[in-house]
Amino acid sequence: MRGTRADPCRPWPRPQLALLPLLVLLFHRTRPQGSPGTLPPSSPGSPGTLQCYGVGPLGDLNCSWETLRDLGAPSTLHLQSQKYHSNRTWTVAVPIGQSWVTIPREQFTTSDELLVWGAEAGQPLWPPIFVNLETRKAPRLDPDVDFSEDDPLEATVQWSPPAWPPHKVLVCQFYYRRCEEMSWTLLEPELKSIPLTPVDIQDLELATGYEVSGRCRMEKEEDLWGEWSTILSFQTLPSAPKDVWISGNLCGTQGGQKSLLLWKAPGHCMQVSYRVWFQVKGQKLIPEETPCCSYSIPTQAEWAAVSAINATSWEPLTNLSLVCLGPGSAPHGVVVSNIAGSTELLVTWQQGSGEPQEHVVDWARDEDRLEDLNWVRLPPGNLSALLPGNFKEGVPYRITVTAVSPGGLYPAPSVWRFREELAPLAGPVLWRLQDAPPGTPTIAWGEVPRHQLRGHLTHYTLCAQSGTRPSFCMNVSGSTQQITLPNLPWGPCELWMTASTIAGQGPPGPSLRLHLPDNTLKLKILPGVLFLWGLLLMGYGVSLATSGRCPHLRHKVLPHWVWEKVPDPANSNSSQLHMEEVPQAQPPRDLPILEVEDIEQLPVTEPLQAYFQLDSGYEKHFLPTPEELGLLSTPLRPQVLA
């Protein structure tokens, strides 16, 4: 069967003939025998100053030369017949700056023998060369490729002799290489066109592109190879990926990322489409078609499988269990170390309690996409891995070791590692929190991103400068994210912070400017303010009490002798009489009966007036009389005669 030609892996011209079909996929794989090397130069003949040869399909004569600085470039090319037209010479003009010229077939006789040389201003530039037009020919080869269904997988290069020159025995050779490889492998050193035999390429790989090219020469011209044929590209049938892994937060070890199913393309230089299956809660989901080489994992997926579209029917699917098992069986004691003089990293670990069928070590740079994950697979007895690649200085790499078993995955916690630590590129960003207590600033800051930190954080350094005072700094633990500053002087203040690794201290982050009030001024003003406030309240209360607008307040605040309209004499010391207390009469008892004689009462007006003489005119006009007060209500006792 025959098929269509695959796109070449490099931008070579497309071959003129169609490829034969790609049918057979086989198991046995050994490299074809041959000697590796670069493709020999396409220019025929051995290197020299001037060389001429016939080219098809008409048999024109092509001459080319190398320009020598001391000799210069020819302006004319001279040809002299040696066989049919003895000593006949003709010239061909050479365009300025051109190092080759093609002479049409009509200007010479077939199978003639010629002497050819170049000249400038009539002077030969180099000795003449001899050209036999019968044999000095460079045929052009155009092979084709066919596939068989035999074991092992092999391709057969079908070729036919060039149409020009006709009826001549040619010697041909073929080289091939895998796409993207630099070296070519020689298939057969020499194959004659009579008898014509095909060329076999054995042990090809599935899903891989290849290139083949050939050239021929006349049997008698051992140094004159024709030009290489157009590079012919072909590819084998697609194949399911053999290496499938996961990237992201499937088992909760990488902080909230989604998860992707990743696989490595099994071949080279091929555009293959794939079909992906998932099982969720015991139910198979409808397969989805996707290009290479990732697909998003649905939530609660239990296993996944990948196959190539248009692959052989007997090829099995590639599946992977997505169940996350307990941490007890996960690897532990993961250690990542540098190798002196190398850009690689060495990872070692201790096996968990389970019996995995393999270990997978994956790594990625900080801020890489999920698709950029790298991984290697190791047999279960191997507890170390040398990670290939060019690990750069100051770049953080996340490394995870996972034990894989048929029942699920046992991932160990991820480890961040630097091949070599450098000083940070930036400092933390500061911001102010609510003061506690008021007037005492509390400062917080964010973490420096890993790709700017460029190492493991050792500590922070917080610096402050107040006004014209010199700045002062203090170290802060790397595990702290905020700090209270009680001893900052009042006034304007500027704060900044740096981060440090074992390689040194980084530049300061953005500054934070504060203005702190003078707390001692409040303590000085507060007593005076309270005293004035008390006086104001007292004056206001007195004014309300005396104004008559608040009589109930007047009764409560002022004593009653202040707000009474008629003063009470009892509240005045001037109205008190200076009298001696008269003893009270004893109650009657059984006494002897006495005889009493009445004596006429004498007037007492003058003594009473003198006795009750007042001290001021205020009491005389307003105070009540002694009779009103009842001071004279007790009559004088009569004298008793014994």
Describe this structure in words.
The chain has 642 residues and is mainly beta. It has seven helices and 41 strands. Strand 36 and strand 37 (472-477) form a beta hairpin. Helix 2 packs across helix 3 (551-557). It is elongated and about 190 Å long. Mean pLDDT is 76; it is low at 1-37, 42-47, 607-614 and 636-642.
Task: List its salient traits.
642 residues; mainly beta; five-stranded antiparallel sheet; 7 helices; 41 strands; 9% helix; disordered N terminus
Beta-strand percentage range: 25-35%
Terminal CA distance: 179 Å
| Main sheet summary | 5 strands, antiparallel
Strand order of the largest sheet: 1-14-13-16-17
Described by the principal axes of the CA atoms, the overall outline is: elongated
- Which structural category do the helix and sheet elements fall into? mainly beta
User: What's the helical proportion of residues?
Assistant: under 10%
User: Low-confidence parts lasting 5 or more residues at pLDDT below 50?
Assistant: 1-37, 42-47, 607-614, 636-642
The tally of beta strands, per DSSP, is 41
Round the Cα radius of gyration to an integer and report it.
Answer: 59 Å
Q: Give average pLDDT, whole number.
A: 76
Tally of helical runs: 7
